Amino acid sequence: MTRSHRATTGGRIDRSVPIEFEFDGVAYTGHPGDTLASALLANGIRTITSSVILGRPRGVTGSWADDATAQIGIDAPYSEPMVPATTVELCPGLVAHGVAGLGALSSDVDTARYDSLHHHPDVLVVGAGAAGLMASLIAARAGLRVLLVDERTEAGGATPWAPWVTEAVAEFDAFDTTSRLVRTTAFGAYDDGFVLAVERRTDHLGLAAPRQVSRQRIHRIRARHTVVCAGAHERPIIFGNNDLPGVMLAGAAADFLRRYGVVVGTSAVVFTACDAAYDAAFTLAEAGVDVRAIVDVRTDVATDLTEQAAALGITLHTDSAVVGALGTDAVSGVEL
């Protein structure tokens, strides 16, 4: 039995409700609000699949669509040949497996319903993070018809827990001229303000999904103006063996803790070339993770960051770099 990596408090999951699921033939437990990736990490599972050619182990590197390694296939309660585990909401009856290479299409007849809907807003805003929410509110306050779409389950982007997010969403939803779609990915922009988006309507309900409701819906949007507020993906740093399970984007490690209450490891080394990773390092340290070091390629680091690192007992290596990760099946150390 693997040790739980779930923090005792925190996260935006419902700890009072267990969800049983199966991955690679083994039964595990998670909670509403988890993704498959967060639930596996909480159960101590680091290896999700393997690489195509060499069979090298592959783990979780990001916390959402920025993950490129934790590819899985879904067998039940619906079928998907190949999707990132980080974007699959945990649901009752979920059965999944790791995918090395290309996923296989199911030969079973798909009995789910699919439909489409047309929209003609004045303004389409893609992304409900800080920029998207503010853009939507400005347009709504001006009396325009606004459609706000976001691929996650709630607004707020990287900070859904911020108090201002709740206030902004409540104000936006109160307008008669606004509409908001969650679990909706805008995937194509074409001539004359035409945008296509797909809404995942019932996948998160699992076996409880009502059969009369479409599983997915295509939204055909013809907007006078489109504002794209898709945010940014953290970029990984290249070094030897950086594909080992346990090597993860710093922001993802912090996101798993804040959003899902998952401590991705008992010890960590944070490698960075900017200030942003310090927040992740401090967040992990405050949660009880033994942050052995922060390795910064820069010579000069802001005094407040160095002082906070020292206060938390974190060793800071400036003008340094990680040149390789150590380990075979998972990362066990780094070489500077």
From TrEMBL:
<dbReference type="InterPro" id="IPR042204">
    <property type="entry name" value="2Fe-2S-bd_N"/>
</dbReference>
<keyword id="KW-0560">Oxidoreductase</keyword>
<dbReference type="GO" id="GO:0016491">
    <property type="term" value="F:oxidoreductase activity"/>
</dbReference>
<dbReference type="Pfam" id="PF13510">
    <property type="entry name" value="Fer2_4"/>
</dbReference>
<protein>
    <submittedName>
        <fullName>Sarcosine oxidase alpha subunit</fullName>
    </submittedName>
</protein>
<dbReference type="InterPro" id="IPR036188">
    <property type="entry name" value="FAD/NAD-bd_sf"/>
</dbReference>
<dbReference type="Pfam" id="PF12831">
    <property type="entry name" value="FAD_oxidored"/>
</dbReference>
<dbReference type="InterPro" id="IPR051691">
    <property type="entry name" value="Metab_Enz_Cyan_OpOx_G3PDH"/>
</dbReference>
